[in-house]
Amino acid sequence: MNFLKKILDFVMDILETITFVASIFIVIYLFIMQPNQVKGASMEPALHSGEYIFTSKITYKFRSIERGDIIVFKSPQNPDIDYIKRVIGLPGDRVVIKNETVSVNGLPLNEPYISTQTTLWEGGYIKEGKSVIVPEGELLVLGDNRPRSSDSREFGTIPISSIIGQVFYRYFPPSKMGGFENPLPKNLRAFSQKLHYLP
């Protein structure tokens, strides 16, 4: 009986440990961060299909969304699908795409992260040379691989409420493990009333 009690105590200790660890993982997943897999080529060269990333769910509780951030959000066409794109336009921004160049508030955006220039297609939300004013509570997002990305050029701006979090770390493959830095200069990341004007 003594032997059985020891085994039972041992098993209970293991179960308590597993329950405790599982609870921590659940809290982290629900409230702090979650893993995501990159699917497709829309964010190349920054992210490639098959890579795994961590998405922070708490970043924007401590700071504002910035241009240049890579975010995960619910697809506006199918909320069951997550998209990964880069923030280009903040609420109130005036965005124009002309001659394959993106301008924000009258300034051409230097985009060192894109694979090629920004093309448009017929029937899309954004038209050549036409201004788009990003509504309050929304963002304009683009993929880095512009010819192979479904983004705001097609479906328009997205609600900030659809954001799951900010991409901050790649953990697979091991050869590419590491964090992500916002590539835009600090003076171009946040909304500036001084640069803003209506058409």
Can you describe this structure?
By secondary structure, the chain is of the alpha+beta class. It folds into two domains: 1-34; 38-188, Umud Fragment, subunit A (Ribbon). Helices cover 20% and strands 28% of the residues. The strands form two sheets. Strands 1, 2, 3, 4, 9, 10, 11 and 12 form an eight-stranded antiparallel beta sheet that branches. The protein is elongated and about 85 Å long. It starts with a helix and ends in a 20-residue tail after the last strand.
Judging by the overall fold, what is the CATH architecture of the largest domain?
Ribbon
Number of strands: 12
**Largest sheet properties:** 8 strands, antiparallel
Question: Ends: how far apart?
Answer: 85 Å
How many separate helices? Answer: 3
Overall number of domains: 2
Shape: elongated
Q: Calculate Rg over CA atoms.
A: 21 Å
Low-confidence stretches: 193-199
Summed over residues and divided by their number, the pLDDT gives a mean of 88
Note the quaternary state here: single chain
Which band does the percent of strand residues land in? 25-35%
Structural category: alpha+beta
What top-tier CATH class of the largest domain fits best?
A: Mainly Beta
Instruction: Provide the helix percentage.
Output: 10-25%
CATH superfamily of the largest domain: Umud Fragment, subunit A
| Element-by-element helix/strand order | HEEHEEEEEEEHEEE
Q: Please name the CATH topology of the largest domain.
A: Umud Fragment, subunit A
